């Protein structure tokens, strides 16, 4: 049977249409309980006859039925195996899906696990439990009524069994008890379980100890209605809050209509906003605007109650923010539109006692969190995951709960896990469903494959990659053809042949979006069989490729371009260094050597032409960490060495990407996946322009070409590293390059600022970037090598995909940097060294120093807490002066570097000045101290490397 409901709805053009909704009712839906004789047994029911739920609130075994909010708020508790034989009503299941997709996915993971004994009962289609909606009843009340009705039906349906409803909704619980339904809160239920301490720690407490409020520290938030009304009237503005990493009392909000982010400061300004939250702000009158603080402020409070410490720091902050030419739009947070809280990694603050503990997140942008735990002694040795539940006005810190321990603090495996979790990197093992999509071994190229592809196995193709690279995406060739012309080919692994649209492996790759590279570890986007074997263009092995082949003259002018799927056999897989040696060694005259020389010659022309067009050459501190192969400890940290061959490969990858972008846009003007680099707003360049001005350089920023020329001219003979630092500063002024579907923007917005090209995409790395797989599919359609499919041409779905790709790529970059930072810290533990550095920024209370040898940036504080500074800060010239010594941006300095591990969570380098010498502030050079040891007993910087070599030598001798 079915029921119908009809209603009238007005459409967009003003017509009224009658809608009829049918709802089918059945009498054959199983209750899921194994020993039920009234229902037909259902194979998908995992409920157990033998499992016993032991809760001392009830003196009988029972099945548990959950309210919607229990699932939404208490999933960390529900994931513990002690809670089993749980019935999820379909009413609840649907509501969870509508309200939180992440929680819905976690619930499904439990439902799919037979050992957990969870079952979904389709109550809203069962003839005895279906309750029709009534217009006069709120949807929440209707759902509660459905939950109570289904629980009552179970009690009557199986009188020999017992059922308990768990709900934190007071009204729902009281009505249930009045209707003879056993009901309790989740806190009551957990408190009476065996082994309750772990579960109690995991309880989400949204009304956490509100009875002991104390004084109110923050102003109240406006109601939702007030926020929406204020935004509608233009009194309030909406934006995403971003907390400062350098100053815990400062944050910024990007608001539509303002070029600069709006500055918020102090407790009342930030008003309980957490990094990532979507907030409503009130912007002050222009005369109240101030400049961002130039000082670095850390929250070193040791307890919840020390609000006086914050008040002192607020006074410092107020005294260092000025109203001058650098003022920014300033305002305050008046309400939270949407919380973006997630799980955070970190440690417990070591000096807190009792049940209430302070959790310190690894991410400096996140405030400390107050949690309740009964296992503090153990957890203080562990890296933890904690989630935020609420932030009451009376509490200095948000309140949250413990989720799980990751492992011992300082363990390399634990720290890698923290890096991945903190940056939301999917890193679980590939599922059986994904692995089942892989081709079976041995994999061979068939006659049918050969008919569909261009056979290039007779061409001398080679790849050039970093040492140890196993996921080889690209290979190159160059050979002379008629009339002195050259044929140049870029051959890219044909990953899209193995990953078909809509399959499990395709969905997984789309979700991961990119391969993530950590020190000594790689998190693949696709399973290893593809990434390091069948798709990797290894030397001497036949592989499928997608080829972009140009006909060029000797001046690198493109005469003809063609694209096709191919079969290649790379002659050699070379490193950048090996390729450089081959080019430089004139005695090598084989086809590979000649090919590389021609490629290098053409690449230089292409690069010169790009730079003439305004392409930027930027710089960053990319370092390589050398690891001990046995202990996996870092032996050395060094800046990556670059060869001409790095630039050679880069030029042809850029050219291939540009050529492919032009091709797919011609054939798919609305859904081509492209990559744009937006032009930065002029204000982004303020630090660069100011630094250049103080050095006597006029940095022009009106267009990319003038900026490139300005950077080329900014050279000083007495400071060879100055130009590199200016380029690093320029890099930090840039906006992030992003993927987008061509149909969502105007053509003038396609421009790639950094490369100075009107069109660009990613085609050359499909093993490690999902965007390239989409581009391959588009290009395959244009070449008649494959067919299209609906999602490929859907602008909306492409746009949603691009959002995920941009997010995952950004997180992968941050994760890689965090991994390098951790291993750099490991390398410097117990060591002391004097290093050449350069001043990157002059702050009001510190200098930020760059150490090029290790790619490190460190902060040298100019005054200790409670002491009077001997330095004078000049805002006009942005300098620090002590006696005759004046520090400017980019000045060289010699500094003493040591890792301070007193704060295990946020280890940092302590920096002391060696030269120039300032009496009472500088320290003596290490060279003047006893050789091999210093006054603190720390080891010289190369000690670990020497010891590792000695250990290996001794092992070899024993053998």
From TrEMBL:
Main location: cytoplasm
Domain of life: Eukaryota
Domain (RNB) ranges: 453-785
SUPFAM superfamilies per UniProt: Nucleic acid-binding proteins (SSF50249), PIN domain-like (SSF88723)
One MF term in the entry's GO annotations: enzyme binding
CDD domains named among the record's database cross-references: PIN_Rrp44-like
Subunit description: Component of the RNA exosome complex; within the complex interacts with EXOSC4, EXOSC7 and EXOSC9 of the exosome core complex (Exo-9). The catalytically inactive RNA exosome core complex (Exo-9) associates with the catalytic subunit EXOSC10/RRP6. Exo-9 may associate with DIS3 to form the nucleolar exosome complex, or DIS3L to form the cytoplasmic exosome complex. Exo-9 is formed by a hexameric base ring consisting of the heterodimers EXOSC4-EXOSC9, EXOSC5-EXOSC8 and EXOSC6-EXOSC7, and a cap ring consisting of EXOSC1, EXOSC2 and EXOSC3; DIS3 associates with the base ring of Exo-9.
Protein name: Exosome complex exonuclease RRP44
Native source organism of the sequence: Ceutorhynchus assimilis
The organism's taxonomic lineage, starting at the top: Eukaryota, Metazoa, Ecdysozoa, Arthropoda, Hexapoda
């Amino acid at each position: 049977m079915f029921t119908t409901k009809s209603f009238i709805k007005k459409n967009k053009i003003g017509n009224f249409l009658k809608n009829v909704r049918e709802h089918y009712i059945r009498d054959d839906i199983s209750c899921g309980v194994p020993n039920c004789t009234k229902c037909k047994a259902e194979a998908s029911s995992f409920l157990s006859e033998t499992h016993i739920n032991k809760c001392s609130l009830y003196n009988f075994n029972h099945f548990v039925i959950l309210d919607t909010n229990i699932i939404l708020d208490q999933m960390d508790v529900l994931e513990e195996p002690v809670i089993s034989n749980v019935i999820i009503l379909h009413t609840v299941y649907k509501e969870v899906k509508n309200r939180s997709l992440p929680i819905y996915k976690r619930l499904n993971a439990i439902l799919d696990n037979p050992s957990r004994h969870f079952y979904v009962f389709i109550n809203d289609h069962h003839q005895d439990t279906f309750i029709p909606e009534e217009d006069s009843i709120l949807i929440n009340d209707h759902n509660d009524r459905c939950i109570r009705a289904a629980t009552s039906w179970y009690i009557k349906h199986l009188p020999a069994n017992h059922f308990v409803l768990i709900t934190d909704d007071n009204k729902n619980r009281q009505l249930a008890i009045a209707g003879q339904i056993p009901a309790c809160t989740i806190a009551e239920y957990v408190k009476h379980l065996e082994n309750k301490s772990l579960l109690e720690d995991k309880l989400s407490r949204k009304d956490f100890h509100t009875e002991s409020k104390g004084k109110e520290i923050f102003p109240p938030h406006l109601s939702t209605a007030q926020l929406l009304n204020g935004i509608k009237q233009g009194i309030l503005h909406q934006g995403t809050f971003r907390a400062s990493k350098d100053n815990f009392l400062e944050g910024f909000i990007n608001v539509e209509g303002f070029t600069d982010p709006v500055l918020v400061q102090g407790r009342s300004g930030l008003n309980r906003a957490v990094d990532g939250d979507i907030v409503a702000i009130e912007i002050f009158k222009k005369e109240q605007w101030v400049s961002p603080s130039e000082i670095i402020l850390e929250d070193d409070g040791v307890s919840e109650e020390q609000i006086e410490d914050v008040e002192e720091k607020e006074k410092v902050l107020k005294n260092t923010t000025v109203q001058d030419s650098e003022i920014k739009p300033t305002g305050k947070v008046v309400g939270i539109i949407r919380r973006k809280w997630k799980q955070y990694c970190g440690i417990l603050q070591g000096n807190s006692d009792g049940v209430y503990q302070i959790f310190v997140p690894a991410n400096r942008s996140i405030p400390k969190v107050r949690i309740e735990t009964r296992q503090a002694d153990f957890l203080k040795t562990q890296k933890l995951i904690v989630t935020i539940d609420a932030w009451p006005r009376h509490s200095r810190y948000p309140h949250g709960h413990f989720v799980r321990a990751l492992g011992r603090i300082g363990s390399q495996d634990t720290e890698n896990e923290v890096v991945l979790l903190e940056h939301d990197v999917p890193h679980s093992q590939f599922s059986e469903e994904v692995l089942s999509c892989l081709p079976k071994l041995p994999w061979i190229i068939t006659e049918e494959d050969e008919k569909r592809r261009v056979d290039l196995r007779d061409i001398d193709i080679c790849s050039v990659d970093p040492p140890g690279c196993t996921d080889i995406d690209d290979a190159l060739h160059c050979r002379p053809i008629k009339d002195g012309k050259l044929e140049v080919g870029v051959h890219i692994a044909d990953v899209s042949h193995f990953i078909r649209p809509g399959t499990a492996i395709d969905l997984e790759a789309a979700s991961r979006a990119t391969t993530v590279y950590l020190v000594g570890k790689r998190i693949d986007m696709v399973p290893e069989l593809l990434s390091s074997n069948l798709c990797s263009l290894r030397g001497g092995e036949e592989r499928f490729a997608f080829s972009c082949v140009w006909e060029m003259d000797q001046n690198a002018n493109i005469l003809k371009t063609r694209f096709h799927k191919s079969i290649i056999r790379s002659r050699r897989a070379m490193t950048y260094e090996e390729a450089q040696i081959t080019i430089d060694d004139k005695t090598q005259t084989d086809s590979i050597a000649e090919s590389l020389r021609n490629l290098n010659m053409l690449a230089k022309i292409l690069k010169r032409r790009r730079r003439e067009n305004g392409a930027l050459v930027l710089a960053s501190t990319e370092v390589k960490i050398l690891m001990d192969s046995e202990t996996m400890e870092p032996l050395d940290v060094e800046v990556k060495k670059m060869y001409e061959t790095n630039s050679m490969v880069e030029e042809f990858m850029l050219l291939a990407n540009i050529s492919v972008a032009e091709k797919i846009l011609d054939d798919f003007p609305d859904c081509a996946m492209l990559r744009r680099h937006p032009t930065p707003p002029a204000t982004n360049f303020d630090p660069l322009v100011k630094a250049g001005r103080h050095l006597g350089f006029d940095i022009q920023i009106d267009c990319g070409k003038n900026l490139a020329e300005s950077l080329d001219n900014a050279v000083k003979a007495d400071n060879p590293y100055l130009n590199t630092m200016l380029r690093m500063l320029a890099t930090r002024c840039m906006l992030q390059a992003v993927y987008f579907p061509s149909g969502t923007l105007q053509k003038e917005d396609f421009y790639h600022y950094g490369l100075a090209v009107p069109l660009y995409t990613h085609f050359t790395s499909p093993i490690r970037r999902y965007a390239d797989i989409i581009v391959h599919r588009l290009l395959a359609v244009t070449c008649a090598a494959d067919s299209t499919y609906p999602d490929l041409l859907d602008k909306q779905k492409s746009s949603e995909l691009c959002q995920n790709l941009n997010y995952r790529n950004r997180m992968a970059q941050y994760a890689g940097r965090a991994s390098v930072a951790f291993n750099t810290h490991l390398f410097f533990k117990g060591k002391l060294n004097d290093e050449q550095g350069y001043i990157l920024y002059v702050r009001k209370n510190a200098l930020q120093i760059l150490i090029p040898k290790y790619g490190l940036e460190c902060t040298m504080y100019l005054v200790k807490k409670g002491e009077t500074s001997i330095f004078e800060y000049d805002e006009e010239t942005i300098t620090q002066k002590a006696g005759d010594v004046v520090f400017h941006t980019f000045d060289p300095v010699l500094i003493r570097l040591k890792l301070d591990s007193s704060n295990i969570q946020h280890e940092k380098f302590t920096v002391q000045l060696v030269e120039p010498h300032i009496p009472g502030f500088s320290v003596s050079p290490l060279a003047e101290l006893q050789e091999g040891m210093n006054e603190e007993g720390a080891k010289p910087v190369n000690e670990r490397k020497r010891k590792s070599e000695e250990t290996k030598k001794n092992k070899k001798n024993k053998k």
